[in-house]
Design goal:
The structure holds 2 protein chains of 2 kinds. Chain A is α/β, with parallel strands linked by helices. In chain A, 53% of the residues lie in helices and 15% in strands. Chain A has a 10-stranded mixed beta sheet with strand order 3-4-5-2-1-6-11-8-12-7, sandwiched between helices. Classes of the chains: A alpha/beta, B mainly alpha. At the A-B interface, α1, α2, α6, α13 and α14 of A face α2, α6, α8, α10 and α18 of B.
Chain lengths: 484, 357
């Protein structure tokens, strides 16, 4: 019994050290991000996006859009993608064996006809059923294939891409008109750039017209509102800081741009993981450092992609569960990078952070909750001590979220209403009383799933932007634009 | 002292509790601090935005009136307070970047009195502000502040230097090509295609200087290649002579590939003899550029050569070879392949369809 109690007490200390390390890192990245974003905002004043286009030389880009059962949103999304502000690009939709009318909607709306196209590369994929092109929309092609998952669809898209860069997009992503020219900028400024990602924002509640977000609003429901704050933290406080020393391990699968030849060189996306986006970026780091190829993987905070986030606990839980499984798969496969001097700052800083803290964090946290409750029950610590520790944990969470809102206010200020700012502060406090703990539980569940090697995408119940538009009276409906 | 003594007399648990309370207090102060900062930023930015919107509503009709000749410049200047000069310049910049000719000159005259103030700010400005000032001077005051913008090329910051180079290229004219070309090695990390497009934007008058760089065997190969690409953008016929020499004398991949592309654009049918040997290069990039050039310059008689390139290992070479057959008028070869079991049958059908369209 004494041994058990001593073990419990020591475990509490481990949890405490873990807590300090994890949140200390979050606080450090937040502070670093302030400086980085201020400098970036200053830099943007001297950058004229339209001038970049006018000068010419912007490399051609293929937007690869994997689509599975996206009947509700695909037409609106593709229409918007066909009107981006970029000199040379094409849109390649990869219909990944949809069981609904995704392909039929595309064929009918965009006057597609079957064409022949020889692939440029031969990454292994499920078989291609057909390629479609449109004389009326020459920038658009559709690849129809047997179902193989998102990574497989991306590989098929890469095979049918001949541009030097490709941009991986989710089918429900709405890109701002100049998002592409902004996210391509790192490739213009530095030829060694192999990947870059932009910022993902929550479209729920926003007014969408013709596939463009014309008015930014906070979602009406609480769950998506929490995710707004969460995304601010992840992108503005997190990725901006990692970007400073080239330690970003994630380029979001919803909006990321890559140098095609390098991705082909490492064999494309892995199809046996649910976190194919992170897996690709980690492999890019490993490949380039191992082969001593000068490279940059960047995060650009101003090009924006809007996406719909889950509105129910069930779907959100499945998403977070999957993200954690993807994280674990990506990191475990490349665990040779951990604290390996061959991989420089990535091996010594960002990889250990993600491996030891982000990956194991939910487990330590959940067991820590249990351990603390047990120590309280056994009377080993006073309730005052436990409450004090909880208060520090909550206060730290509040600081990090409030700081993220501050970063948003410093730079992009996308939420124009003062009431939205007040709500964001309120959410920054409230999310620490239940939402964060739920996230920890879902990530813990994802960790257990990864251990027993469950693979599954889960199902995203997508309302569709049509419904968003219908809730905004007096405005053009996406449905109306679909029938033009 | 009394506090420290009391702290020293406390038990371990009590000390931890005090530390926790202090930590909570510090964190709450931080949270309040961040939120106060954010609220202050919001208040400041909204006030600033309202003020600027009001100014723009005031200035815009005056600026357009000036451009139309209805108002004198003084009518606009009277409405610009000293504190708002930089914002006025930014508003004018927005229009200036889309205009040329007389309209642009009118706008330049409008902001001329305010630009000296910007020059004075340069030495004590941060990198991003220096870049903005250089951009403004380049767009709106290139004639009067040429030297300042030129000095920007040598700024320690690569960003400022590139902004100066872009300004020179876009607004300075061809006589600024040499200072930019002399400093091209500062931009070695930039995209080659972007640099070439930037140099080409200087116009045909810059071609002689570009040819000189392109033809300089002592210059870095990547700089020669960028110059060649810029000459291709300009469709510069005299560059053909330089390209022929470069093909004969150089083995550098970038120089050879860009020379082939240039020859494809401005070359003569007799240049096919220079192109053909490059089809046997070990480098697929060079083979691809060569087959493209053959498609542009060759005749139907070269169909067999293009047909042979369809068996190349590189999908890029075969892609260009199929298009070359179309360009050479050898759709018969494509048609034969299209109906066969050749590995490139799909490619042949693809190119035939593109030709029909």
């Amino acid at each position: 019994m004494d041994t058990a109690i001593r073990f419990l007490l020591w475990f509490d200390i481990v949890v405490l050290i873990y807590f300090v390390a994890l949140n200390g890192t979050y606080l450090t990245t937040t502070i670093l991000s302030f400086g980085a974003l201020r400098r970036y905002a200053g830099r943007m004043k001297s950058l004229n996006v339209n001038e970049l286009i006018a000068t010419g030389g912007a490399p051609p880009v293929t937007l690869i859009v994997p689509a599975f059962d996206e009947e509700e949103t695909v037409v609106a999304a593709i229409r918007a993608l066909l009107s981006l502000n970029y000199p040379q690009y094409e849109v390649l939709v990869c219909n990944d064996g949809s069981t609904d009318g995704t392909l039929e909607r595309l064929i009918e709306t965009f006057h597609l006809e079957a064409v022949e196209q020889e692939p440029a590369t031969e990454l292994a994929t499920e078989s291609i059923r057909g390629v479609y092109g449109s004389r009326r929309f020459p920038k658009l092609r559709v690849l129809d294939k047997e179902n193989g998952g998102k990574a497989d669809a991306l590989n098929a898209g890469i095979n049918h891409t001949r541009t030097p860069l490709y941009c991986a997009l989710d089918a429900d992503t709405l890109l701002e008109r100049d998002a592409l020219i902004r996210v391509v900028r790192p490739f213009l400024e530095d030829e060694t750039t192999v990947a870059a990602g932009g910022i993902i924002r929550i479209a729920n509640g926003c007014l969408v017209e013709g596939g463009q977000v014309v008015e930014v609003r906070l979602p009406r429901e609480t769950l998506p509102r929490f995710q707004v704050v969460e995304y601010m933290r992840a992108f503005l406080s997190g990725r901006m800081a990692w970007n400073r020393f080239g330690g970003n391990l994630i380029v979001s699968g919803a909006f990321g741009i890559f140098r095609r030849s390098v991705v082909v060189g490492i064999g494309g996306y892995s199809t046996d993981t649910v976190g194919e986006d992170m897996d690709l970026v980690v492999r890019l780091h490993r490949h380039c450092r191992r082969e001593k190829i000068p490279y940059q993987i960047g995060f650009v905070p101003d090009p924006v992609a809007w996406t719909e986030c889950p509105t129910t606990l069930r779907v959100l839980g499945r998403q977070r569960d999957r993200w954690q499984r993807g994280l674990i798969q990506s990191l475990m496969r490349q665990r040779g990078m951990l604290l390996n001097p061959r991989y420089g700052a990535v091996g010594f800083v960002s990889f250990p952070f993600f491996f030891l803290l982000e990956m194991l964090g939910p487990v330590v946290e959940m067991i820590g909750y249990a351990a603390f409750i047990l120590t309280l029950f056994l009377g080993l610590y006073s309730p005052a001590y436990v409450m004090g520790f909880l208060a520090v944990a909550i206060a730290l969470g509040v600081v990090l979220s409030v700081a993220a809102v501050g970063l948003e206010e410093l730079t992009f200020r996308r939420y124009p209403k003062a009431s939205d700012l007040a709500r964001l502060f309120g959410l920054a406090v409230l999310e620490n009383f239940g939402y964060r703990q739920l996230n920890t539980w879902w990530r813990f569940r994802g960790t257990i799933s990864a251990l027993i090697r469950y693979r599954g995408w889960g199902r995203m119940e997508r309302k569709g932007f049509d419904e968003v538009a219908r809730t905004s009276p007096g405005r053009e409906l996406i449905a109306a634009s679909n029938t033009r | 002292m009394l506090g420290l003594q009391t702290f020293a007399e406390m038990s371990g648990g009590e000390r931890v509790l005090i530390a926790l309370v202090i930590a909570v207090f510090v964190l709450l102060v931080l949270a309040v601090g961040f939120s106060t900062y954010a609220v202050w930023l919001r208040y400041r930015n909204e006030r600033r935005a309202e003020h600027r919107s009001a100014l723009e509503r005031l200035w815009t009709p005056l600026i357009f009136g000036c451009m139309e000749g209805r108002f004198p410049h003084a009518a606009v200047w009277e409405q610009v307070d000293r504190a708002d000069e930089l914002h006025f310049i930014r508003v004018v910049m927005r229009y200036a970047e889309r205009l040329k000719g007389e309209s642009l000159e009118t706008l330049r005259a409008l902001v001329a009195p305010f630009l000296d103030g910007l020059v004075d700010r340069l030495p004590r400005s941060q990198m991003e502000d220096r870049a903005l000032i250089i951009q403004v001077l380049g767009t709106l005051g290139i004639d009067e502040h040429r030297e300042t913008v030129l000095r920007g090329l040598d700024d320690p910051s690569p960003l400022v230097s590139m902004v100066a180079a872009r300004a020179m290229a876009r607004y300075g004219g061809a006589h600024h090509a040499k200072p930019v070309l002399d400093r091209l090695n500062r931009y070695s990390t930039w995209s080659r295609g972007y640099l070439a497009a930037m140099l080409a934007s200087m116009g045909p008058e810059a071609a002689p200087m570009l040819r000189a760089v392109y033809g300089d065997a002592a210059a870095q190969p990547w700089i020669r290649a960028v110059a060649a690409d810029a000459l291709r953008w300009l469709n510069d016929l005299p560059a053909l002579l330089v390209a022929r020499d470069a093909l004969r004398d150089s083995d550098d991949r970038e120089v050879v590939a860009q020379s082939l592309r240039l020859i494809a654009r401005v070359g003569d049918p007799e240049d096919v003899e220079l192109v053909l040997p490059r089809l046997r290069s070990d480098d697929p990039v060079i083979r691809g550029a060569a087959i493209q050039a053959l498609g542009e310059l060759g005749t139907a008689q070269h169909g067999d050569v293009a047909r042979a390139a369809l068996d190349d290992d590189s999908s890029w070479v075969t892609f260009h070879a199929a298009h070359a057959l179309g360009a050479l008028g050898r759709t018969d070869v494509l048609g034969e392949l299209a109906g066969s079991r050749h590995p490139r049958a799909v490619l042949a059908r693809q190119v035939l369809r593109e030709l029909e369209a």
